Amino acid sequence: MNENIQYITIPSSLEKEIKGFRIRSDVQIPVQLPEGVRKISPELVTIESICAGMLIVIAYHPEHRNFDYFRDFVLACQPDCIQELNTAAIAKEKQKNYPFSEQLFLAVYHMLPQSASCINLATLYSSWAAFKKKEKNEKEEDFYTAKCLNTLKDGLERFGENADILAELGTVESYLGNLEDAREYLQRYMKVAVEGEKKEKLKKILKEVEFRIDSDNEINQAYDFMMLGEEDRALESIERFLKKNPKIWHGHFIKGWALRKKALYLEAEKSFLKCLELGESNSDIYNELSICCLETKRRDLSKSYLDIAIELEPDNFTLMNNLAYLHLVDGEYDEAKKWIEKCRQVAPEDRQIQAMMAEYTEKTGESFGDVITEEYVKTPDTDKAREKMNSFDGEDDGYEEELRALDEDDRTHGFATVNMQKFDLED
């Protein structure tokens, strides 16, 4: 920004007063040069280029020793500049010219600090973060999300318990899933806000946030009981949760998980099917359904569920391994070989794969050749894909039984610790 600015000194002969503001010769003033120009010349020094240079300093260097002079100079020359800058900033934001929009909003915020200018700037950063999210640029998404929050917090320090800023902070934190922070800001908002439509709307948001906090606590408690091997206590906890939240699929999943661990396979199956009925579809659900069907002697359906699980998560080594094992023990050797080969692509040295290969050879007399690898044209994404393939270390993932028997209890459901924080609330 500053590379297009040069400072000049006005000769004393040009000192004069404009609408109560006196131009001084003892203050160096910034002039914005056209793009690519590095040397100033008299014809480039205009009121417009001076005001443009001052606005850049005002936007990015509010601590400048001559800040007050620059602000007053601009307002004297362009009395309506605040409204004009706001209008231009909004237009640039809509055009996704975020850097220029930021410069304009910053200038407004620093020239006329108000809750409205603070919120406008924060909203820009929120839009910028959303744009980076669409680009799948998580680092910059987080950066502009943080700038949004920091701008609002700065406004709160400047203006005290401002209802509008508290409302913004509460809704932004709620959207980000920071429920405790959202509750704090919304509760503070309720103390200072005037009655009206906005307050009623935010009362509903606060109620939802408090509901989600209570729900998270209950579902986390049930999950913790499962990790401790206390299925009965987990069921008690999750039943209380489901009584209040019958349409939250996570609750039905944990209930099914607990019932499956207690060997109540048909009841567990109903809970997992309820997850599907509520619109959720992921590999963990189908894997659990496969286990229930296997334990109730419906092996073909068990394999069908595993097929679906693998469609949803094609790189899941454990699911492929399980399916290979089922086909092998059922004497479906062509299918068994196909899945063993897929597993070898991921972890050729895995001991369970080696055991299945030996059993396959013993039963069919057919041996396995070297691992066949596909060749890819190298693109920027190729190395990432190979890193993902190579990240499997081929070690046992907690299964103690030979060939990863599908009824083994030590399956992980680590996804719940993340996804449970993000469930959608139903009315």
Notes on the structure:
The chain is mainly α. It has a domain of 79 residues. The protein contains 19 helices and four strands. The strands form two sheets. A two-stranded antiparallel sheet has the order 1-4. A two-stranded antiparallel ribbon has the order 2-3.
Short description, anyone?
The two termini are 50 Å apart. The protein has 427 residues and is an all-alpha fold.
Using the CA coordinates, give the radius of gyration: 32 Å
Shape: elongated
Secondary structural class: mainly alpha
Report the biggest beta sheet as strand number plus sense, adding barrel if it closes.
2 strands, antiparallel
Number of β-strand runs? 4
Extract low-pLDDT stretches.
374-427
Beta-strand content: under 5%
- The neighbouring-strand order within the major sheet is 1-4
Given the structure, what is the number of helices? Answer: 19
